[in-house]
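Hello Y.,

Per our agreement to keep a running log of every chain we model this quarter, I'm adding this entry. I've kept the format consistent with earlier entries: sequence first, then predicted structure.
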Amino acid sequence: MDHPTDNQSQTTATLCIDYDGTLHIGHACVDTDGQVTPDSGRLLLDYSVLHVETLKPYPAMQSVRTTTWLQTLSTEQVIAYLPAELARRVVDTTRGRKARLSCMLNGSGHTDIIG
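Predicted structure for the entry above:
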């Protein structure tokens, strides 16, 4: 992640959050055409409306997004799936960051990447 510049407060609240399991139930897969489909059979990002409402009292809140979709899709494509109210808050992603093997094996890979 980039470090704050002189124009950014070093105390800006930043939320690190995944797409799968937070913005929709289950996991979503990227097919060979770049289309993202949730494995739950529900709508993609169906909880994003709730996420937007939850963040309304915090207009300065930024976010760093993590998702396995970054292995296949560009950062711009991944952010474009978000509603505008969430996309404008994205300041970085975890693209290119690798979790330690021990964290991948115990299921905490995303947490390790964000930490």
